[in-house]
Specification:
- The structure is a single chain.
- This protein has helices at residues 7-21, 31-35, 42-51, 57-70, 74-78, 82-89, 96-111, 118-122, 129-140, 149-158, 169-179, 185-198, 217-221, 336-347, and strands spanning 238-248, 254-257, 268-269, 290-291, 296-299, 304-314, 324-325.
- By secondary structure, the protein is of the alpha+beta class.
- It folds into two domains: 7-226, Endonuclease III, domain 1 (Orthogonal Bundle), CATH 1.10.340; 238-347, Nucleoside Triphosphate Pyrophosphohydrolase.
- Strands 1, 4, 5 and 6 form a four-stranded mixed sheet that branches. A three-stranded antiparallel sheet has the order 3-2-7, with no helix packed on it.
- The longest helix has 16 residues, at 96-111.
- It is globular, with a radius of gyration of 24 Å.
- The protein binds a DNA duplex (11 and 11 nucleotides) through residues 48-60, 91-97, 100, 125-131, 134, 146, 148-151, 166, 189-190, 193, 196-197, 202-204, 233, 235-236, 262-265, 298-302, 335-337.
- Residues 51-198 form the HhH-GPD domain.
- This is Adenine DNA glycosylase.
- Its cofactor is [4Fe-4S] cluster.
- It comes from Pararhodobacter zhoushanensis.
Length: 357
DNA sequence: GACGCGTGGAT
DNA sequence: TATCCAAGCGT
């Protein structure tokens, strides 16, 4: 590992690059605006950082726009109904983030605003080491070290750290702290992440375009693309299940709200079997079920899922064993796997009527 | 510290 | 097609 990297030289070179090449993002106060005295809104910084957790910039943009249009302030978000927020979050994934977002907004509103220290932020729901540091640095100009996957990769290469992740994470964080400047910590953090996202990329880093190439030990050794080393991941198993899509005469679909914790917690979904090697059928009511051909495939973080879909139309009077009929339900409020089930059901004869078959 | 937790784009 | 990966957090 190289040890002679100078904080001022590295942060200076990176900030000069950022002043010239910073991406324009909806939640970002760019270097020129910042220099002109524009102050970031902690609410927008926090909201964007939570949305960006393990989620790409391209995906977040539309959600950020919808959220800030509908709820322009943390007080407005705090006053929203849970189900409204969950529905607006639908499709973005990691739904615990949305539950924590609501809890955090209400705590902040009750406190009269966001805390402006690392520890104060860190104590809020859904705010961990990364988000606390990024909000402290970007919104409150505090010299905190922001460490995300980009920063870990950049630092691993700068210092040619060959120890595998995740074991090396604490070391990478210490090395990142060495580089964090006292001035412009927020721009520095965003510059590190921009660099990782656009230049110091995972597979094929563009070292020829890198403002830090002259400081980079991995570049000097010709091993930038090999770093950081990661320990191998275990392969994903495949689970199977059956989802039941029932439409009542009035068009209301039968849905249930999933338990508040765990997979898709708090989100609406179709009644179904367990998900496993050999699922047991579990229709939510007695009906003339039609098992559709094909399966819906979806991959979660730690397993593949193949769902068979059974559909039925039922009269107005029936009472389901699980879930409830929801007139006027918007399929856009479904998490993606459940929306795929809906799309698959709609491709069948669910709406054509099967009486004439 | 390891695991559970979504989704869509890149390779 | 399969795998990797992304501005992580909570338990």
């Amino acid at each position: 590992m190289r040890d002679g990297i100078d904080r001022e030289q590295v942060s200076g070179a990176l900030l000069r690059w950022y002043d010239r090449a910073a991406r324009v993002l909806p939640w970002r106060v760019g270097p020129a605006e910042r220099a002109a005295g524009v102050v970031p809104d902690p609410y927008r910084v926090w909201l964007s950082e939570v949305m960006l957790q393990q989620t790409t910039v391209a995906t977040v943009k539309a959600y950020f726009h919808r959220f800030t249009t509908r709820w322009p302030t943390v007080e407005a978000l705090a006053a929203a109904q849970d189900a409204e927020v969950m529905a607006e979050w639908a499709g973005l994934g990691y739904y615990a983030r949305a539950r924590n977002l609501i809890a955090c907004a209400r705590a902040v509103a009750a406190q009269g605003g966001f805390p402006d220290t690392l520890d104060g932020l860190r104590a809020l729901p859904g705010i961990g080491a990364y988000t606390a540091a990024s909000v402290a640095a970007i919104a409150f100009d505090r010299s905190e070290t922001v460490v995300d996957g980009n920063v870990e990769r950049v630092v691993a290469r700068l210092f040619a750290v060959r120890d595998p992740m995740p074991k090396s994470k604490p070391m990478l964080a210490r090395l990142a702290a060495r580089l964090t400047p006292l001035e412009r910590p927020g721009d520095f953090a965003q510059a590190m992440m921009d660099l990782g996202a656009t230049v110091c990329t995972p597979r094929t880093p563009r070292c020829d375009d890198c403002p830090l190439a002259g400081f980079c030990e991995a570049q000097a050794q010709g091993i930038a693309a090999e770093l950081p080393v990661k320990t191998a991941k275990t392969p994903k198993p495949t689970r199977r299940g059956i989802a039941y899509v029932v439409i009542r005469e009035d068009g209301a679909p039968l849905l249930e709200t999933r338990p508040p914790k765990g997979l898709l917690g708090g989100m609406p979904g179709w009644p179904g079997s367990d998900w496993g090697d050999d699922p047991t059928p579990a229709p939510p009511l007695a009906a003339d079920w039609a098992l559709l051909p094909g399966v819906v495939k979806h991959t979660f973080t730690h397993f593949h899922l193949e769902l068979s879909v059974a559909t039925a139309r039922v009269p107005q009077a029936v009472n389901p064993e699980t879930g409830d009929f929801r007139p006027g339900f918007d399929p856009g409020a479904l998490p993606t796997v459940m929306r795929k089930v809906w799309d698959h059901a709609a491709s069948g004869d669910l709406f054509a009527g099967r009486d004439g078959a």
